[in-house]
UniProtKB/TrEMBL annotation, chain B:
Gene3D superfamilies: Cytochrome-c3 Hydrogenase, chain B. This is Nickel-dependent hydrogenase large subunit. The lineage of its organism: Bacteria, Bacillati, Actinomycetota, Actinomycetes, Kitasatosporales.
UniProtKB/TrEMBL annotation, chain C:
Residues 256-288, 338-366 form the 4Fe-4S ferredoxin-type domain. The keyword Zinc does not apply. PANTHER family: ANAEROBIC SULFITE REDUCTASE SUBUNIT A. The keyword Iron-sulfur applies. Keywords: Iron, Iron-sulfur, Metal-binding. This is 4Fe-4S dicluster domain-containing protein. It comes from the Bacteria.
UniProtKB/TrEMBL annotation, chain D:
SUPFAM superfamilies: cAMP-binding domain-like. Transmembrane segments: none annotated. Residues 5-74 form the Cyclic nucleotide-binding domain. This is Cyclic nucleotide-binding domain-containing protein. InterPro entries: cNMP-bd_dom, cNMP-bd_dom_sf, RmlC-like_jellyroll. CDD domains: CAP_ED. Pfam families: cNMP_binding. Coiled coil: none annotated.
TrEMBL record, chain E:
This is Oxidoreductase. Pfam families: Oxidored_q6. Residues 19-155 form the NADH:ubiquinone oxidoreductase-like 20kDa subunit domain. It comes from the Bacteria. It comes from Streptantibioticus rubrisoli. Keywords: Oxidoreductase.
Length: 273, 453, 381, 156, 262
């Protein structure tokens, strides 16, 4: 039995971080940049998450949406007490961070292959550092396609950056100024240039969207073992000890959030598993 | 001031009393024409819905009449049901009941002293303000109050609506080991209570008296709490004495089974509480009455504290009829209850089983105990299966209403003789007069003797 | 595991001495004792607190103490608690945080030294349960430091099972009634015409050292034989069995079985089965603050997958909203997906969940029924 | 049954199709299929109501459409990978003709004329009609912003 | 909870038909009382103070049920001057023991208790606060638990969700280490259907839970009622067991009516 024995249990006890910046993404969503006050946490890898603690309120899992040295960025949508507190943070405020936790996208295993990134809503956040990774070394990969679905044009995250990526964007509900695609994100697959057998796909978004997209990709010939999806369940401890995030055989805080469609397909097909 | 020279003082909602009440006072040409303690606490119909319940249920159900003195309700109910079923609970079980009751006395009396009554003597609105100048005393009071709660919590499970009391005894009795830490704390608190008596004795008290009969339970050899015989002391005027006389007067006792022949409730239009009278005369229950009836049975430490506080020696026939000084008597009762609790704990042997069987019986039972604010009487009629067919509850505040209104009249009249007070002054004075008797409005709002028709 | 040298025999006075020695070594001794009409695990100060002469009568949803004429001290089955209560307590502080006037945060890990427990009377099934908890709480990428601290310091006196209850099925789960590895000392209680005595073996050096301090005699063949026979007889007297199939596969194959509806009709979702289970480890976190708001604490407390809010998603409802899905989660996890997550079954066959379920839902009966339903439906899907 | 899908078919085709049918009935609250599972059967509803739903963790089953008397339940069996896109739950007791999908597909291959006619009928009467109505509903759902109820955020 | 300009949040405590016990719980927080008073401004609390602060209030605690027309109007006013409204106790949350009137003719009840019933203006039912105005949180119990009250106030101050679990008493009973009284003694106990919060007191004292915290969030009466019968309760006992302090809670009300029809 191998047991990690860090001096400070950074998996259990938060480490102080300072809010270095925050920007509004949409009405209910903000991106916060965090810098360590003292020693930083071990390095994060795209796809992994941190438990971010708002003082006195609680902590929630937030995927990293940007990694720059010791600086972590997270995009948070205000849906509960803790996310509301984090969403409302101002620069200079201190928070606690635990991590890194969970499985990563594992971009390296897609070396030399076509890449298909499919994101729905706030699901773009954990995929962003993956795209950064590809753009930093395009020579290692084949075709990169980024397909993004957003509820409305105003809900699109990182709009400037997304334009630079050349991503295909579709919205459910256009406004008067929107001249782009309208519809669900899977409809964009027809316009993406990828060779299914040579493709590794990375999918994140609402679970219904993940199910539809992964199923469609598999139908088009992408190997289910090469479709990587990021799943979400309630996480409390992030260390595999509290049991809340179980999804069938998976302990998602440890075995996820990123799993292959091979793993996810059967567990997502059982209601209330 | 109205055009006809009538002056009305209306106080919408009385503060620092338990429950909802208002005051209505009319003054005309220096005379008080009307003094009403108007209780508008919504009625809750306990006596009606007790009908049809099992004979084991009154302790838990009637506890909910009052969150301030639930133990009083539970134990009066137990006594009445046990009386109907001809069961006597005695020995260590009775001692534990008294211990539980001591806890409620300590809690409730310190609550009243510090949080409700003392602010009046310092001219502040509440205990938080009081704590700004009397921090140590308030903290001591809260600690004492907590000690009372700890007794109730240990024996009863929780301080409000304890869960461990049952007809026949308890669901579970504590071990000696469980009581030991409590005793350690109470030994400290006994000194604190002696300090408390000294503190309140130093307050500034107006001269006052009360011309009411005093009604309390009496139990030879002890300061009656959880049992005793109703005993009344004559009002001073009947003996040709002034209302503020401190002399003990003749007493008479009557059997608890005859309670409703002596204490009769009647309804007044302005109140959801029923007023009651003792043998047709106004009477007062509570600390002043208990001290008058049972004072000589206080423990030595309590007697000494009472004497040092200027209450005189009850063994020498001295009583206290100044309602403003009731705060001192309450403090003495706190000290006594702590002392008594310690005595019970030291003599404690766990009884087995924790309750005696109380098989139902078709009969009517009566029970009375001394709630912190006065005598609380319960009566139940059971059928052979133990179903309650009739219930009557007579709480102390209902009994005291007449006395409170008379105190209002007397005090306001006296004040008017000293010159014209402002409305604010008059209001504050009336509130103090009411709070002297620690009225518990929740208790008083739902009762009637069924025979009054 | 040390081979522990030669087995010895001690009597009741030896057991008293054992408790005294363990107390003398600064340990908090936890063992069985009678309280509230049950044999509970509590702190012991002497051997006279052991439940000599007490046995239990067990059925699904029913537990009754009954006297035993033979005066045995360990002839009772699993009680309402397990050692989890002490190793993985119901409520525990994990860290505290202070916010300074300048807004700086300081976090301090809970560092109160863990108690040095001595567990007296650990039944073989429970010893395996402790091993399961070890894997869950210290075997993954992140070890639970508090648990590990208590666990590493704990001294385990196992007692072999000679009196299984009607709800026991450790033989099915391969966890008893003979003791497996992991003990410091192992006892086997023997009562016959030669008297009331215990065969003792040491499993560790500390166990040997403790044993050496006790009044004892070398184990005689008769005592050894009697001990072996009593344990062997116990194996034949198991009240219940699990179906002799791969339970992990059975659970995977029957996720949509009708039988779940049947069990759920009887399930109160009270969570009692999870709380009494010696391996159920789930917890929830509590964040508390004081009135100033500048002092915060993180606590965790036992939680259960039967709680509707266990799977509450932020901004939504519960994933497992139906009682059916919650009961299914418990059972399929316990004997199915536990293997995937932690490399073993989560069930040790102690029968507590059967006894302490108010409506008497029986894990073995449910497994048999699921197996029968699968068989009736033909091949596994 | 006089209305619905069957009545839109020419009589010969109707007879041909019903040749593969067998009668079936379900009580209310029975799950006929799950999203993602194999689409190996389909039904023509004679009486009763079926809800098509999507399961969203934490929110339960969200009903997107209902299928009633005379309507065809299921068309995913026509196209690879023959997997249901939605789940189906009976809301009331249901009586229906049930068809074995592989058998019907094989028959469509064997008799291309009948196959094409059936395919056209499904494309027009079922898929096309539902697509049109879904788009109309989108207009309702995504029409002028309906003000969101104030989220007072009660703790529980 | 952010308040304007960093001032102390204002707390108000209101009373309707009740025994006062739940608001007394605030005064029973001896260790915390002065601390609370430092962190929040107790603006309205008649039982404790004769001073009343100006509206609006950041947090209103409401004790008691609605039994008169005036009270039904008063609670509307309270809602309108309160940013957050938390009901405290079984009366405010489920109508309290006085909701037993809901099963009877109130005119008759009134006549039993009062000689001149015409003096008494009261409604035919006792209803919870939530039947009249939106409520942000309902704190259960007859009476409420002191620890839960402090938790609600501190959580309010920290902007945190109060940790007030909705599961059954059994959860707390097991955490407390009490052997189940149903299983070990055959004692009827409402724990499996009752909301946690009391700390599982009654079983710890050897008695069955009597449901003073009302229904939990996951109840299976068809499986539970037979246990009560098995352990010696007859139909009348079962009806009485659910008709106490939370009698008007919908789940308890329904099961007691169903049992009463037997």
């Amino acid at each position: 039995m191998t047991i990690l024995a860090p001096q400070v249990s950074v998996a259990t006890v938060p480490v102080p971080y300072r809010v270095a910046g925050c920007s509004t993404e949409s009405a209910d969503t903000a991106t916060i940049a965090l810098e360590p006050v003292g020693s930083p946490l071990p390095a994060f890898t795209p796809g992994q998450y941190a438990m971010v603690y708002a003082f006195g309120v609680g902590d929630i899992p937030l995927s990293v949406c940007g990694i720059d040295g010791d600086r972590l960025t997270h995009t948070v949508r205000s849906v509960g007490a803790t996310s509301r507190a984090l969403w409302a943070l101002r620069p200079g405020t201190k928070v606690g961070v635990r991590g890194p936790f969970g499985t990563a996208w594992d971009l390296r295993s897609a070396s030399g292959r076509d890449l298909l990134v499919v994101a729905g809503g706030i699901g773009l956040a954990p995929l962003r550092p993956l795209v950064h990774g590809v753009l930093a070394a395009p020579e290692h990969y084949g075709q990169l396609n980024v397909l993004i679905g957003a509820r409305t044009p105003g809900d699109l995250l990182y709009a400037e950056e997304v334009r630079r990526w050349g991503a295909l964007v579709t919205v459910d509900r256009p406004d008067a100024a929107w001249t782009g695609d309208v519809g669900v994100v899977t409809a964009l697959l027809d316009r993406a240039a990828f060779d299914p057998p040579r493709t590794t796909a990375f999918v994140c978004g609402p679970e219904v969207m993940i199910r539809a997209a992964a199923r469609e990709l598999a139908h088009r010939g992408v190997d289910p073992g090469r479709i990587r999806v990021s799943l979400e369940r309630t996480m409390h401890c992030a260390t595999g000890h509290c049991g809340h995030c179980q999804l069938g055989p998976l302990l998602l805080c440890r075995d996820g959030p990123v799993v292959t469609w091979t793993q996810a397909q059967s567990v997502l097909s059982v209601r209330e598993l | 001031m109205n055009g006809d020279g009538t002056r009305e003082v209306k106080l919408g909602a009385l503060a620092r009393v338990e429950g909802e009440a208002a005051l209505h006072l009319c003054v005309r040409e220096g005379e008080v024409t009307e003094a009403r303690l108007k209780i508008y606490e919504p009625p809750r119909f306990f006596e009606a819905f007790l009908r049809g319940r099992a004979h084991t249920e009154p302790p838990d159900l009637t506890s909910r009449v009052c969150g301030i003195c639930p133990v009083a309700y539970q134990l009066s109910a137990c006594r009445a049901v046990e009386d109907a079923c001809q069961v006597v609970v005695d020995g260590q079980l009775a001692a534990l009941r008294r211990l539980l009751y001591c806890g409620e006395w300590i809690e409730s009396q310190t609550l009243h002293i510090h949080l409700l009554h003392a602010p009046d003597f310092f001219g502040v609105d509440n205990v938080i303000e009081l704590a700004r100048t009397q921090r140590a005393e308030v903290e001591r009071g809260l600690r004492l109050k907590q000690a009372g709660n700890r007794i109730v919590e240990l024996l009863g499970g929780r301080s409000i609506h304890p869960i461990n009391v049952r007809v026949g005894g308890f669901h579970r009795v504590p071990t000696r080991d469980e009581l030991r830490p409590l005793a350690e704390r109470l030994r400290w608190e006994r000194d604190a209570a002696a300090d408390l008596v000294r503190w309140v004795a130093g307050f500034d008290f107006p001269e006052a008296g009360c011309d009411h009969e005093l009604l309390a339970l009496a139990e030879p050899g002890t300061y009656a709490i959880e049992c005793g015989t109703p005993t009344a002391m004559t009002a001073p005027s009947a003996a040709g004495l002034p209302a503020d006389t401190d002399r003990a007067l003749p007493t008479r006792a009557f059997d608890i089974h005859d309670f409703s022949d002596h204490v009769v409730e009647r309804q007044v239009p302005y109140s959801t509480a029923l007023h009651s009278v003792l043998d047709g005369r106004r009477h007062l229950t509570g600390s002043l009455a208990r001290y008058a009836i049972s004072g000589r049975w206080l423990s030595p430490v309590a007697l000494e504290a009472a004497r040092d506080a200027g209450l005189g020696d009850p063994r020498q026939g001295t009583v206290c009829r100044n309602p403003f000084r009731s705060i001192i008597v309450r403090a003495v009762e706190v000290l006594y209850a702590i002392d008594e609790a310690l005595r019970i704990i030291e003599a404690y042997e766990p009884p087995s089983p924790p309750a005696v069987e109380v098989p139902p019986r078709a009969a009517t039972g009566h029970g009375a105990t001394e709630a912190p604010r006065g005598l609380l009487y319960h009566r139940y009629t059971l059928d052979a299966r133990g179903t309650v067919t009739d219930a009557s509850l007579v709480p102390p505040t209902a009994q005291n209403q007449g006395a409170i209104e008379e105190d209002l009249r007397r005090t306001v009249r006296g004040r008017l003789r000293d010159g014209e007070p402002t409305d604010a002054e008059l209001t504050a004075l009336c509130e103090r007069v009411i709070r002297n008797h620690d009225p518990c409005i929740s208790c008083s709002a739902h009762f009637l003797d069924l025979r009054v028709r | 595991m040390a081979d522990g040298g030669a087995p010895a025999v001690i009597d009741k006075a030896g057991l008293d001495a054992l408790i005294a020695v363990l107390l003398g070594r600064g340990r908090t001794v936890i063992g069985p004792t009678v309280r509230d009409g049950a044999i509970v695990l509590a702190e012991l100060s002497g051997g006279d607190e052991l439940p000599y002469g007490w046995g239990v009568e067990l059925e699904a949803g029913r537990y009754r103490l009954r006297g035993r004429a033979d005066g045995a001290g360990f002839a009772h089955s699993a009680g309402p608690q397990s050692w989890k209560t002490f190793l993985h307590p119901p409520r525990e502080r994990q860290w505290t945080a202070e916010r300074g006037a300048d807004g700086e945060l300081a976090f301090s890990e809970e560092r109160t030294p863990p108690p040095a427990f001595a567990f007296l009377g650990v039944r073989p099934c429970d010893l395996r349960a402790i091993e399961v908890l070890d894997r869950v709480l210290t075997g993954g990428p992140h070890a639970d430091a508090r648990y590990r601290g208590r666990r590493q310091r704990a001294f385990v006196v196992a007692v072999e099972c000679t009196e299984p209850g009607a709800t026991c099925f450790c033989v099915s789960m391969g966890t008893g009634p003979a003791v497996g590895p992991g003990y410091d000392l192992a006892l086997t209680e023997v009562l016959d015409h030669e008297g009331h005595r215990f065969l003792v073996r040491a499993g560790t050096e500390e166990g040997e050292a403790v044993l050496a301090e006790l009044p004892q005699r070398p184990a005689d063949p008769a005592t050894r034989t009697a001990a072996r026979e009593r344990v062997a007889e116990a194996a034949d007297r198991m009240g219940r069995t699990m179906p002799p199939v791969d339970l992990r596969t059975l659970m995977r194959d029957t996720l949509e079985a009708e039988r779940w509806n049947d069990a759920t009709a009887r399930c109160l979702t009270c969570g009692n089965c999870t709380m009494v289970c010696p391996t159920c480890f789930c917890t929830s976190t509590e964040d508390i603050t004081d009135l100033t708001g500048d002092h915060a604490e993180r606590w965790r407390r036992w939680e259960s997958c039967f709680d509707l809010d266990f799977t509450h998603l932020a901004g939504g409802g519960s994933v497992r909203s139906s009682p059916r899905s919650r009961y299914r989660q418990w059972l399929t996890h316990k004997i199915g997906t536990w293997h995937d997550q932690f490399g073993s079954s989560g069930c040790v066959g102690c029968g507590r969940c059967i006894v302490w379920c108010p409506t008497g839902i029986d894990i073995t009966e449910e497994a048999h029924a699921l197996n029968a339903e699968r068989a009736a439906a033909g091949q596994p899907r | 049954m006089t209305e619905g899908f069957l009545s839109s078919l020419p009589p010969t085709l109707r007879g041909w199709l019903l040749g593969f049918a067998h009668d079936t009935a379900f009580p209310g609250d029975i799950r006929l299929f799950e999203e993602g599972s194999a689409a190996d059967r389909f039904w023509l509803v004679r009486t009763g109501l079926i809800a098509l739903d999507v399961h969203i963790p934490g929110r339960g089953a969200i009903v997107v459409e209902t299928i009633g008397d005379g309507e065809l339940l299921g068309w995913s069996w026509l196209f690879e990978p023959y997997q249901w896109h939605l789940g189906a739950l009976t809301r009331t007791a249901v009586q229906a003709y049930e068809f074995d999908a592989p058998q019907v597909r094989a028959a469509m291959d064997e008799d291309p004329a009948a196959g094409l006619a059936l395919f056209r009928a499904i494309g027009d009467q079922v898929i096309g009609r539902r697509l049109r109505s879904a788009r109309t509903r989108l207009l309702d759902l995504y029409g002028p912003d309906t003000s969101r109820a104030y989220e007072s955020g009660p703790a529980r | 909870m952010s308040t304007d300009g960093g001032r102390r949040p204002k707390l108000a405590v209101w009373k309707f038909a009740s025994c006062d016990g739940c608001q007394l719980t605030l005064l029973d927080c001896e260790d915390e009382l002065l601390g609370i008073a430092e962190e929040v401004e107790i603006s309205y609390f008649l039982e404790a103070s004769s001073a009343a602060g100006p509206v609006p209030y950041d947090l209103s605690l409401v004790d008691g049920s609605i039994t008169t027309r005036q009270d039904a109007e008063r609670v509307q006013h309270i809602r309108s001057v309160s940013r957050r409204l938390v009901t405290i106790g079984a009366c405010a949350t489920a109508g309290g023991v006085q909701a037993l009137r809901n099963y009877a003719d109130v005119a008759e009840f009134r006549a039993v208790v009062y000689a001149k019933p015409e003096y008494i203006a009261t409604l035919a039912t006792s209803t919870p606060i939530s039947a009249h105005v939106p409520v942000d949180l309902e704190l259960r119990g007859c009476p409420i638990d002191r620890g839960q009250l402090v938790e609600v106030i501190t959580a309010f101050l920290a902007g945190r969700k109060p940790d007030v679990p909705d599961h059954s008493v059994c959860f707390q009973c097991k955490q407390r280490g009490t052997p189940c009284v149903i299983v070990a003694h055959g004692t009827p106990c409402l724990g499996p259907v009752t909301h946690a919060g009391c700390g599982a007191l009654c079983p710890a004292y050897g008695r069955g839970c009597y449901g003073c915290f009302g229904p939990s969030n996951s109840i299976n009466f068809p499986a539970f009622i037979p246990l009560l019968r098995r352990d010696g309760m007859d139909t009348l006992d079962v009806v009485r067991a659910f008709r106490t302090f939370n009698t008007a809670a919908p789940e308890f009300d329904a099961v007691s009516r169903e049992e009463a029809r037997r």
